[in-house]
TrEMBL record:
Key words, A-Z: Membrane, Transmembrane, Transmembrane helix
Name of the protein in question: Uncharacterized protein
TM annotation in the entry: 272-293, 305-331, 351-368, 380-400
InterPro entries named in the record: Ntn_hydrolases_N
């Protein structure tokens, strides 16, 4: 995100980078005379027709943006109020505050460490801003300011510039005279957008907030050829309502591809299938070990079952990784986890399975033809191979072999 103050007004641009397909904009009226109406955008569903605010602005121009970030947990105790509902808390700030000074007084009442994985920024119509970290508040009034996925209190600018989207935005604002036109702000948002090589994933929604005129321009799925503009006061006059952002724009092939892409995180049957297959692989591994130990002295063909059992255990672990790490389906393959080398190493499992499939299938054919082998273990081995084949097909569909990207 960025803010810039020029030509007598402050503009705020926010890029939400996500692989969700449920982007929304909604409008909430003031509930009494002391409150302000506000508009919000977001895509993470937290309840029936309720979404977590990602950015927003109220009728006096107070704007905010929320970004994923990292801050080490602290054991320090706090006697401040606990935040029990993130949506109510975040919306109340815009409904009750007019300036960043108001926001600061509001936030200082609460233990903000619940947002250990987020950094927030609030900007008022005068151009003052407040960066809200889990344990720190940073105030500023620079003409322009850029923030990405980091906490400024623990991140040097040199380290921040390793993030391409941040570097692009900072360079554009540094090398040009900022102005408050929509064209200039669109150019800044465009240069900071993301479009990853897999599944077209990247910037889901761009919002540009005009704090003086009370306008917001939306750009959908990193396409900057068309925009939809809302006058917040006009929308609030219609009462509380929520709009599906995708319905506002022409068909976007990249977004349609994303929307039709099935993963265990958007298709419950796939998640259940992973659990079932993991359970079957574990049972097969146990059965192969038992059969192998019982027959190791009479038939050497059973010895290879120990290797297959180990492979089953590794594949079961990988199924667990697939069911708990959504980034695997969207970031480049092999997936590199930000903190777990074990998960990063497991991302080579599809390649290992693909390489050893032919030897295992060959072994299976010979084992089935072995007249001395028991029929029960033959059937289990064939079933095991079918799971391998099914896994390879799934891995190919999810793009887990596409290391060339």
């Amino acid at each position: 995100m960025y803010k810039l103050t020029a030509d007598g007004k402050t503009m705020v641009g926010c890029n939400e980078d996500a692989w969700r397909t449920t982007s929304r904009i909604w409008f909430e009226t003031a509930k009494n005379e002391s409150e302000y109406g506000a508009a919000f955008t977001g895509s993470r569903k937290v309840g029936p027709n309720q979404f977590a605010p990602q950015s927003g602005m109220n009728t006096v121009g107070l704007t905010f943006s929320r970004l994923v970030s990292y801050f080490p947990k602290s054991d320090q105790k706090s006697d401040k109020k606990n935040i029990t509902n993130e949506v109510s808390y975040l919306t109340e700030i815009l409904h009750t505050c007019a300036t960043v000074a108001d926001v600061k007084r509001f936030i200082e009442q609460y233990d903000h460490s619940i947002f250990i994985g987020d950094v927030f920024i609030y900007i008022d119509s005068s151009g003052n801003y407040l960066v809200v970290e889990p344990y720190d508040l940073i105030e500023g009034s620079d003409q322009y300011y850029v923030l990405s996925n980091f906490c400024p209190s623990i991140t040097t600018n040199d380290k921040a510039r390793k993030l391409e989207r941040y570097r692009n935005g900072e360079d554009l604002l540094t090398n040009h005279t900022p102005n408050a036109s929509l064209d200039f702000c669109t150019a800044v948002s465009d240069t900071m957008h993301v479009c990853r090589s897999r599944n077209g994933d990247g910037t889901l929604l761009t919002s540009i907030w005009d704090t003086k005129e009370g306008l917001v321009n939306l750009y959908f799925y990193h396409s900057y050829d068309s925009t939809v503009q809302f006058d917040i006061a006009d929308e609030l006059a219609q009462g509380d309502h929520i709009i599906n952002v995708a319905s506002l724009f022409p068909t976007n092939p990249e977004f349609e591809r994303l929307a039709s892409f099935k993963t265990p995180f958007n298709t419950a049957s796939l998640r259940v299938s992973l659990v079932i297959l993991a359970g079957i692989l574990t049972l097969l591994a146990f059965s192969f070990i038992v059969f192998s130990l019982r027959n190791r002295k009479t038939d050497s063909a059973y010895k290879n079952l120990i290797f297959i059992s180990g492979l089953n255990v590794a594949l079961t672990f990988y199924f667990f990784v697939l069911a708990t790490n959504i980034g695997i389906y969207y970031f480049d393959a092999p997936f590199k986890h930000y903190s777990s080398s074990l998960i990063s190493m497991s991302s080579y499992m599809p390649f290992l399975l693909l390489i050893i499939t032919v030897p295992i299938f060959t072994y299976t054919i010979r084992f089935v033809r072995n007249a001395g082998a028991k029929a029960g273990i033959k059937s289990l081995l064939v079933a095991n191979n079918l799971i391998y084949l099914l896994s390879i097909i799934a891995f190919a569909y999810w793009g887990l072999f596409n290391f060339w990207n």
